[in-house]
Design goal:
Elements lengths: L9 E5 L5 H14 L6 E4 L5 H5 L11 E9 L2 E2 L1 H9 L6 E9 L6 H11 L2 E10 L11 H4 L4 H19 L8 H4 L5 H10 L2 H6 L4 E2 L9 H5 L5 E3 L3 E3 L8 H5 L5 E2 L3 H14 L7 E3 L1
Parallel strand pairs: 1-2, 1-3, 3-5, 5-6
Antiparallel strand pairs: 3-4, 6-11, 7-10, 8-9
Helix pairs in contact: 1-6
Amino acid sequence: MRRQNGFPRTAIIVFSPHGNTLKVAGAMKEGFHSQGIEPTLIDLTGAPWHEIRGFAYSTLNDYDLLVLGSPVYAGRVIEPIEIFLSGLPSTEAKLAAVFVTYGLISGNALFHAAKLLSKKGYEILGAAKIVASHSMVFEDERDQFILRPSQEDLELATTFGRVLVDKTNHSGLKRVSMDMLKPKKSLAVRIFNKFMATRFGMALLPHVRFTKETCIQCGRCAESCPVKILTLDPYPRQVGDCIRCYNCVRICPTGACMTPRMWVFDMSHKIISRIYKEDPLSALLF
Ligand SMILES: Cc1cc2nc3c(=O)[nH]c(=O)nc-3n(C[C@H](O)[C@H](O)[C@H](O)COP(=O)(O)O)c2cc1C
């Protein structure tokens, strides 16, 4: 690991199946650069489950500030980030920040990540939620779902990096309050988020099916799997827990990887986005 003279020595840790969170992390790095800091980007995407569970946390000892980035999945941070945070050793007086990318409802995600970090003794300096294309929406043509993060969203991410450096360098450091991160949503949305975070909620997300008849064994599905649970023997087969990112479905050139119930999601998504009045907004919380 490279030691830096600049303060804070920063690690940005992300998991990004579809690439939005990684893109936002790149913009955030620019903000650090503008303040003379070179953060280390630790991209956990593509690490198999055992590597995430066995992450060498001692490699983080030299950092002053950890910035965690995750997509929102069912109103929470994605499971590999949750596992990473759960295994993080407790610390005293270390700093952290969190950011999520999301397509429609960020739900409990920022609060969830910040709570896991603060349980480990981290002071939360700031949080950001950045709107991005919804990686589960296959058929919605509205700009909101395909053209984000926009230039403005990315500029906000750059500002986030810059402000984090400012905050760590100035005395009288102000932490973000947990109350600010709590979603102030209607009861119905809160119940929906809570339900979706359970085993039953996740079970509603369509499963991926593989069809031998149309599979050409190109292996693109296995390459695209961010938790490396697909094996070709000789046809694709899941050998671990699927996070339902649907990368394999998107990338398959012959439609052999498919989600038979995806129309249910597309329909319910359209309904939710109409009932849910608030437009998704990118925002920084300090
Ligand atoms: C299984 C799944 C669940 C999702 N759940 C939510 C959600 O609850 N709220 C939301 O706003 N976006 C949700 N999304 C959209 C992602 O949060 C969004 O597309 C994110 O930018 C993806 O990040 P990535 O490109 O780094 O993978 C979900 C996407 C998937 C695939």
